[in-house]
Amino acid sequence: MSHPSKTKGSNFERELVNEARALGLDAERAYASNGKAFGESEEVDIKVQGMRLQAKRRARLPRFLMVPEGCDGTVFRSDRGETLVLMRWEDVMDKLKEEGW
Q1: Closest Cα partner for 35 from 15, 50, 20, 54?
Q2: CA dist., res. 66 & res. 68, Å (int)
Q3: Where are the beta strands (DSSP E) in 3-50?
Q4: Among 85, 9, 10, 100, which Cα is nearest to 49's?
Q5: 19-50: buried (b, 16+ CB within 10 Å) or exposed (e) per residue?
Q6: Is the model's pTM score more than 0.90?
Q7: How far is 47 from 51, CA to CA, in rounded Å?
Q8: Quick count: other Cβ atoms within 10 Å of Cβ 55?
Q9: pLDDT digits (tens, 9 = 90+) for 11-62
Q10: Helices 89-99 and 4-22: crossing angle, nearest 10°?
């Protein structure tokens, strides 16, 4: 029997893939959540329109990661680190569908 955390993560990955497919996007989940099944880094959990994504589900996220109302995303960086953008899943799916990212 799988560990509850593994089950929760796998279910989340399936949920994301199903949502993307419902929008008509090409989406797939890596076998055993291992991107090597795609010929990618083992960190890749799902692919949507060729975009390689890792899926993480947590009980609570830090407040600074929340995308405020009226904003399209949140940009953040650790000191001397990479600059990252966090966007709502629905907004990314809309962009992929509309603009063919």
Answers
A1: 54
A2: 6
A3: 27-29, 46-48
A4: 100
A5: ebeeeebebebbeebebeebeeeeebbbbbee
A6: no
A7: 5
A8: 18
A9: 999 999 999 999 999 999 999 888 899 989 999 999 999 999 999 999 998 9
A10: 30
